[in-house]
Structures are given as C-alpha cells and as structure tokens.
Amino acid sequence: MTEFRLYMLQRLSALVMAPFVLLHIGVMIYAIRDGISAAEILGRTQGSVLWFTFYATFVVAVSIHAALGLRIVLSEWAGLRGPTREITSLAIGLGLFALGANAVWSVTAGGTS
Q1: CA angle (57 as vertex; 53, 59 as ends), nearest 5
Q2: Distance, C-alpha 27 to centroid of its chain
Q3: What gap in Å lies between CA 74 and CA 27, rounded to an integer?
Q4: What gap in Å lies between CA 86 and CA 53, rounded to an integer?
C-alpha cells in the first residue's frame, strides 16, 4: 500500500474513532454518576449485540490507527525502515486487536480468558 493510502487510512480510522470515543466517555460518565458497580455494567453489556458491535468496531479502528501512527514513530524516532518497520507495526496492530477483541468478548459475551 502506498504511503498516501496508509496516511488516508489512518485519517479515516480517526474519523471512525472520534464519535466512538465521545460516546464511550459519555456512557462511562453516565454509568458511574450513580455509583454503578462492575457487576451491574456487565449485566447490561453481556449478551448485547449492540455493545458487541460498538466495541468491536472501536477496537478495529483503534488497532489500525495506532499501528499506522506507531509505524511513523518507528521510522522517525527509532530509525526503522523497510520490512522491520512494517512487521513491527503490524505486530503491534495485531497485538492491540487481540487484546481489544478479548476485552470485547469478555464484556459482551461473558467469556473469560
């Protein structure tokens, strides 16, 4: 993929993330204002297709955005180039996705790992 397309993909992921961040923060503020417990939160999120879809989409956008941003940091600050940079940023993106997917599954489907 060209540098321009990667640049545009990162900007597109930011556009996807922005409303998700605002909604997530709004929901967190709403949830904690009355002192809701973790068990009550899980009771509302487990089994919910809506929350699964919301947070799964959020995780995908964050993973793409962070991996592409770190790709530039690896290039500018660490001096990585070529396949080393690409593999490192891909590994970071996949790692973030795996961690996020596990969290989404745990909170919405009730699974643990």
Answers
A1: 120
A2: 17
A3: 34
A4: 29
82-108 pLDDT per residue, tens: 999 999 999 999 999 999 999 999 999
Domains along the chain with CATH numbers: 3-108 (1.20.1300.10)
Distance of alpha carbon 25 from alpha carbon 60, whole angstroms: 18
Decide if 48 contacts 108 (C-beta within 8 A).
yes
Q: What is the pLDDT of residues 1-56, one digit of tens each?
A: 899 999 999 999 999 999 999 999 998 898 888 888 888 888 889 999 999 999 99
**Sign of torsion, CA 67 101 56 17?**
negative
How many Å separate Cα 25 from the centre of its chain?
Answer: 14
